[in-house]
Amino acid sequence: MKMRSPKKDDAEQMKKFATLLTLAGLIMTAPAHANSYNLGYDVYAGGFEAVEANYLLSGEPDDNLTVQVQAKTGGFIGKLFPWSGQYTTIGKFDGDVFIPAKHTSTSVWRNKPKQKELVFEDGKIKSYIERYKDAEREKDNLKPNLVSNAVDLLSAVMIAVKQVENTGECNTAATAFDGKRKFNIQLTNSKQDQINSPEYSIYNGPALKCTISVLPLEGFSEDDQGKGWMAIQNHTAERGKLPEIWFASLKEKGPLLPVRMEINSSYGTVVAHLSKLDVK
Fold this sequence. Notes:
The chain is α+β, with helices and mostly antiparallel strands. The protein has helices at 11-26, 75-80, 144-147, 153-167, 228-238, and strands at 36-45, 48-60, 63-73, 83-94, 97-109, 112-121, 124-132, 135-139, 172-177, 182-195, 205-218, 244-249, 256-265, 268-279.
């Protein structure tokens, strides 16, 4: 089958796809006894190398834990649509609950960076700062309906995956705020499956497959349905298959980790493979 080459008009679609892969990289569970944790993912879209993502964890889970996700477009697609993102949360675990202190995200599209920052107090959102083109805007009087019971995206996904690890099922949700919108990240539709991609993945074996989706709660406009994650979610729903993610423990009694993610797109099937694991 002949692969379709990316076109200039696909730039916005690749930005949306990069958003999705960023979320794939975020879906991790912090290991309780590791001081350094590094996972790498290679992503292919319609046969093209599309995105490289890395998950980094350092520090102690119950004190000053740093979680970081780095992602960038790569290969031929990266040359056409240069995008990169870095997402960092500092916080700690209190039992199974992750309590964030600060979250920063930096997205660079065609050498134009945009930074967002969420500051927390006792695990609750206190202020939001946005920096773009040497301008800074701070919001410290956020509407309660937007931020109550919400955390940053990275923290929300960690909380949701921890619940999956504890129950062994995909039947959970966690609430996130991105500076404008409030939404639930949902993991549903548990199914036991088998991973068999030895040419791409370092893990092959049994895995728990979940459907991943976002449920808008507050702050969404009609235009938001065509942006970011919602655009991808609606795009894949039209093709009859929401994004799916597979989890597995790579060793006995080890943490639950994402080992594969798959979506349908205009490029064909897009698959993220676990390609690196380094624990110290």
